[in-house]
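TICKET #2291
ISSUE: user wants both folds in one file
ATTACHMENT 1:
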Amino acid sequence: MRVRLRRMAVVASVLVSVAYANATTSHAATASAPSSALPLYEFADTGTEPLPWNAQSLESELSGTTMIGGPHGATNGDNGVLAYRTNTNDLATLSLSATGAPQWTDWSLGNNVPPPEADPVPFYDPSGHVALLYVDTSGDLIILTANEAATPAWNHWRYGAPWRPVVATDLSALTGVAASSALASVAVSGSTATVSYLTSTNSLEVLTLTYSGTDPIPIYNQVDATLSAPNSSTTTTTTTTTTPASGAPSSNGGFSNPPIVLPGPTATVASTLANGDLVVFTQSGPSPSPWVTQDVTTLTGASPIDGALALGATSSTIDVAALTGNGAVELFSTYYPPASASSPVPSAATDSWSVQNITALASGAPPLAGNLTVQVTPSQVAIAGQAAHWGDLFVLTNAVGTSSWTATDVSVTAGSAARTVGAVVTGLQVNGQLTLYAAGVNSPPPQGVGVYAIPWAKWTTAITQGWPIISETGGLGTQSAPWVGLTSASSVSQSPDFLMGQAIYNSHKRVTWLSFWTVSGPLAGQSQSPTNYYDHGFASGVWVGTQIASYRSLGVGITPDWVILDPEGYPDNHSHLDAPPGASPATLARFATYWAAMLKGWQAGLDSVDPALNAGVYASQSEYRNYQLANLPLPVFVAVAFSGGGPVPVAGASGSNVRGFISFGASCTPAATLASEANTLANPPWSGEFNTLQFNAGVYCAPP
């Protein structure tokens, strides 16, 4: 460890903050920005049971931009701010308030600021202004500040330099130490801010900035410290709670993760060594006092950690969470000693840490991956992150005053909007409500060949064994409005479609869910007109949409990928949609208008309840051809059969809206036959994307 003092003139430090192009050092970037962009999603904990979490895309709040990298947040009382890189690699923020509308700002647009290489980290300065801390493409650490109107103070300190609406302060130019492309960290205490970052040579750089009055532009204090990795010993003990212990470091492994600055008036920085030890550096007094090093892993007997650190704090406690190599969450905790007369603001206790293995304490918690967030509210401690093996957003919570932890799959309980998330999760607390943010990964329904109409007791088995698609019939046609009903269940909670959703929900696996509903057409004596067919389709769509909308209140937060009208209802097992045998082209054309009207009504009915539901239709090859279904905007799932030497393609029964083939007459045995049937549907001439096999009643078999 070495500490260096830089006695720079204040004028020089301020000039660099005004014009980043005057920086005296330039360093190559260590990594490239990701090329793909994803929508930013919000997961709000509303507290309303049974599914308190709700998800929504923020794209409309973000001027239509998407995100590269991940989001990062900061909270200031009843206000919060998110920072991210847009799909054009601009720096942007979304400011949130308990009382006002969200405010989106593109900091890069028209301001000629250094382009980012790493994600921006937002923070609030002592006066409540939002600022951004990030590493640019030259390997320099930048603080970006929204300037106030030109004042005499600006002219005095900047010697008349042109006023700028956004000011970039190049901290690497001031310290002379290049940054890696990892995230930097900052903590504000009083009128000062402590900043730390991982350098390009794998050390930790720590510096202090001072704010004067309400001026948002910080002043560099001309003192920085370069901290080298200490010797450290590897520990392998896994514990749930510990008391402080002593241990002497024995080997130097270098740093494996960027630092975090712990809150308090005394400069304190934590990081992870290459061997998995958590180390904390604390300055023993005012600069340039020596730094004291603690190996918290050795003190607590914790397992080695293998991930970025996440910080949560209150006025009396500090929590630092990280992942072990197997994805378990380790939570290190300490407290602020009471304030003294000589130090009226409490600082972190550096000699008293405990650790808990939260994954072991939270029943059902999966291994996590990526960057965690720790959020401490008046009622709970919450740790959130991405599930390591399937990407769902999980939150582990502990109610204040209790020792138990609960694991919740937020992606599932928050609805179908975003089932999986990116690797970076952040959180905010605005007006006492916990809200999580992450990239909503485009999780398309899995394609391939699945199963239809298997015994309900085998649904979970089918999902577990790897069938990518699973489907069932939710309701059958009736002889009165709404022309579809639950004929085999006394309540929604016992209905086939709900129970299938529950099986998928409980499996924690992303499978394609095809939901079929048999609907009746106009009965004998009723008018055969497009209007009447539309009304039948609309009434049934409203009813089915209403059933699906009730699933959430019953504990199932996902919805089917497609809600498919099956025209096999009354009065003739074809919903009165098929023309008589030998019908003329004119008659076929007239019946085509019935199909179009009923399906338009079906989609409109579903949309009137939940526009996010995707309508579809089930039809035979001859129906697809005869009634011009290729011209409809709905996806079509075509019925075929393996019996009688089939399936056999029918001329004119293909089109771009055919999404898959729903086959009956399939065989489970021998295994070669099952494999051949699956390959038939997935390959030419069929090449279906979402296909199913239906076996004899009561039969199930594992995927080939």
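ATTACHMENT 2:
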Amino acid sequence: MTILLVDDELQLRNYLRTLVDWEGNGYRYMEADNGAAAVEIMKRTPIHLLMLDITMPVMSGLEVLAWIKENQYDCVTAILTSHDELSYAQKSLRLGCRDYILKSDITGETILALADRLRGELSAEIRQQQRYAAMETAARRKEMIEIQYAVNYWLKNGGERGGTEITPHFEKTLGFPDGESRYVMLRIQLRDYGAVVNRYADSDAARFSVVFERMLNELLNGNRFFYTECDAGEFLVFLRFSHKESTHGILNKTQEMTKQMGRNLTGRLGIRSGIVFTLPYTGIASSIERYGKFKQLRAFSFWNPADEILCLDDYIFDEQICAKELNLFSEELTREMKSRSIPRIESAFDKMAERIMERRYCVNPMSFKNACISCVTVFLMSQAREPQDIQAFFLIEDIETFKTAMLELIRPYCISEKDQDKNRLVKKAFLLIQQHYSEDIGLDWLSSKLYVNASYLSRVFSAETGQPITAYINAYRIEQAKRFIRSENMKLYEIAEKTGFSSSVVFSSVFKKITGETPSDYRNRNV
């Protein structure tokens, strides 16, 4: 609680400063020698209790009270004066002063009692303001929920309520004069939504919604917007721009907002998200078409694209083009299944799935699953096997889980010479490492050179050698480094570079970890 004493008499200020143990009684004490100085302090620092003289140079106490009333400054005031005149008291009270005390009556007890009395009034006033604010917030939230429900119904039923009926909601709540605005719609999809909500008050999605709305208000401060939660973990945000703004300018603003939004969701709330936004459009009724595309993209999230922020128009929605791409996928998968090689089948799956994702084909996951299951069914029948019950496959949401289940289903009927194939693959990896150990190589580099899936290569290599690929590469490099140390007159940093280490520090660390001694110790012992 901060108290400010304002009086032009230095002697009185010194007296009051030492008369009471302000800090011990819960006050932060400040002072000023005139009204103007007090106003400057109040502009910079929140003052809760104000005690001031009436007659002062530059700006009187009554003028300060008038300034407080005009600016609706939130503090409780009292007058300290030598003038025992009714007119002063009346003017002070009209200007919102809560008490009036003569300087001749001031003692340690009376001034502290006055401060405590003012603090009590301030606390009661704050509680009353909080009650009014809570009632007002509840009323606004109730109205907003009703509008959100109306907008959701309108969007999900293809405008069934009628554009002329929904437009007033936007105009009333958002100040969106439909003929004078351009809109951008954002779809924010929160990943692992159930886990996100669990962090907020016993799985209370409403509590999380408040947190989410507060973040939007902070981020979009100064921009007119409306948001609604259409489905669990899926929010729509409507941004309004003037029809006079250029498309380029609107897109720049939107992209910056969405980037900041993604950073806030990840950094402040610890939430992974995907954000897709539309190009600017006119006419609120056009939102129906954009929402329809968003619903198609919701299915496309089956692919979990790495990009978290994308433009809606980056996707290909043409059904014929998407169907053609899905047919190519089926043909490639069927061809590789004939080889009965799990690595080749997995590689084909990954390559074609990545192609669909990167080129932004809006492929429905149900169609994708149907294509995969058709390929599996044909393969099993070619092995004189009746297809098993595969309905459970359609319930799998994650593409990696789906792929694993599919491969496990056909694995018993694929080539059984696994050990021979694995040994051949590892031998090829050995040869590549020996030829390129001085370069920047690793698991991804080797898998691309061997045309196999990286995770598969890692599993095979570890099973065959008993160590990860990275450990083997480092061990091989250290063996070569030891040879150079023994036979070459080279500096250690040159040897580090020649054996593929990024720096001499990394080289020394790995060398000691593997050999138990530093490169210098090894040189001293072997030269």
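RESOLUTION: both attachments delivered.
EXTRA DETAIL ON ATTACHMENT 2: The two ends are 75 Å apart (CA to CA).
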